[in-house]
Amino acid sequence: MPRFALTLEWNGAPYAGFQRQAHSPSVQQAVEEAAFGVTSEEVRIHAAGRTDAGVHALGMRAHFDLSRAFDPFRMAGALNAHLMKAGHSVAVRDCVEVGDDWHARFSCTGRAYEYRIVNRRAPLTLDAGKAWRISRPLDADAMHEAAQALIGLHDFTTFRSVHCQSASAIKTLDRLDVRREGECVIIEAAARSFLHHQVRSMVGCLAMVGQGQWSKADLAQALEAKDRCKLGLNAPPDGLYFVKALYPGE
């Protein structure tokens, strides 16, 4: 039974997240329906991560199994044709055949996200729904310095959604960098795995640091509190992008 690994890109605005929802459109449903249109087989898509409603992806990895052989290059083209015909804002950037021991979620050794803030007074037009606009000036250097307090192994309960299903709030954050590019402030986060809302919660608090409402010490105290009630702010989903998933040998 051949297994196909996909690299997916999508605009998250029309979807309730990656995972199938009973009464809302999802990325998983869109790709599974496209796969059925191509192969006449009902498949189940497994992804490296589950994104929230409105969150985007540049390189989400996913896989599904088929009962028969199929050329991966043709598969990518056919899936994209069905997705486009159905009006979905999802694209298959790559498709390769992998061994049956490769799993998009369980084989993944690292995940990277990017959050985009547009720091200006004017409303967003081209970036509407694709970034978080903050009109007050942000000190990106102060944000980066404060972000380093979150690096390493910690209990991230403060930055965890009350709906998070992870067995433990203890995670190792490998990288959290903040930089300015013109009017944009970019936050990059990397770890083996993240808690539900962790990146958005960290970004919200870093934005408070950037506006002078919090200090690095305040951020560290929020982390040490291990209490969701001590969270300063949860950033909106608009500016969050799943960038890539890492696997052994790649």
Helix content: 10-25%
Largest sheet: 10 strands, mixed
Number of helices: 5
CATH topology of the largest domain: Alpha-Beta Plaits
Quote the beta fraction.
Answer: 25-35%
The topology string of helices and strands comes to: EHEEHEEEHEEEHHE
**CA-based shape:** globular
Annotation, overall tally of beta strands: 10
Determine the structural class based on helices, strands and strand pairing: alpha+beta
Number of domains: 2
Whole-number radius of gyration?
A: 19 Å
Distance between the termini: 23 Å
Unreliable residue runs: none
What are its keywords?
Alpha-Beta Plaits; 250 residues; alpha+beta; 10 strands; globular; 10-stranded mixed sheet; 5 helices
Task: Give a quick summary of the entry.
This protein is α+β, with helices and mostly antiparallel strands and 250 residues long. The chain has helices at 27-39, 72-85, 140-147, 198-210, 216-225, and strands spanning 3-10, 46-47, 56-65, 90-98, 110-118, 132-133, 152-155, 170-181, 184-191, 240-246.
What does this structure look like?
The protein has 250 residues and is α+β, with helices and mostly antiparallel strands. It folds into 2 domains: 96 residues, 2-Layer Sandwich (Alpha-Beta Plaits), CATH 3.30.70; 133 residues, Pseudouridine synthase I, catalytic domain, C-terminal subdomain (Alpha-Beta Plaits, 2-Layer Sandwich). Helix content is 23%, strand content 28%. It has 5 helices and 10 strands. Strands 1, 2, 3, 4, 5, 6, 7, 8, 9 and 10 form a 10-stranded mixed β-sheet that branches. The radius of gyration is 19 Å and the shape is globular. The mean pLDDT is 96.
